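User: quick one, fold this
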Amino acid sequence: MLAPRRQGSSYNSFRDPEEPQHPPTLARIMSNPERQPSGLTEAVGAMQDAFTMMNPQTVQIENMEETYYCYICLSNHRMSKGYTLRSCGHSFCKPCLQGYLESQFKSRQTHPRCFYTDEKQSVCNVEISVADIKAVATEEALKKYTYFMNKEQNENFVDCPKCKTQQLGDPRHPWTVCSNADCDHEFCFVHQNQHPKEKACAEFEAEQRREERKNRSWRSAHTRPCPKCGVATEKNEGCNHMTCFVCKTGWCWLCGEIIGNQVLPDHYKSGECKGKQFTSESVPYMAPWEAIVCIMVPAFFFLLFSPIAFVMAIVVCILYPCLSALCCCSEDQNNQQGWNRCMG
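Assistant:
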């Protein structure tokens, strides 16, 4: 059976009278306003203020700010330091968002999208609004955005070839004057600076077609396509073992077969191209007897006329000194006669 409850508001009402009593704690005294001594509340408040002054880095709970995770720099920041997109409500660092937009505009991407990823790894993918772009993007990035947006919305935007100022042209009236007052350059909307104002676009295009036909005729006569990549190749001298400068494939100029990149391919050791690695198509390949004839005929004439040339050389060597002495004596005699006439 429980003992009867003792009367009174003392916190030691259930304690044994013989047990030593301890002084009440500060928390128990503060919870019972009747037991607070005079001026204790003011003293506790002053003590808290002094503790706060001694610890300036102490953050109060009521002053804590919400944070966000930036998916560009991959770190947490205060909401007041970031920028919240109007289109989707996701927050990013403003410098990070500026760099992202600039990289998008450099690659001609005029419709950047939010790539915020939630806990389920689903991407937001909402297009960033024009208002957000104008509020965040730098002046240089905004110029690029405007430039590419103009090109996207109207294909008649053209750049001045002199000052690069973008302006709206008219293909029905191709001759254009730059809208920049400091430039005033005149150019063709279609062909830029390729022809003067006096020459019509149709006349210029007709000349271009004639030149193109000439180029095709020349290419068909002087070049052959690589059997692997098809690039036109010209051969002006050297052997018939070709190496494509694009795909580095070795092929035969005579038959167009791929033969590899060996110095002396086996292709020229048999078949219809046998022995023709160092021959030219302008000079047909000679048979062995033809080569012997070409060598023996010059040798025969050399042996035939070499003795005569030898005799003539000996005669000239003998007669040249005699003829020289005779000329000198005759010249000296004429000079002596002239001197005697002068002296009288």
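User: anything notable?
Assistant: The longest strand covers residues 67-70.
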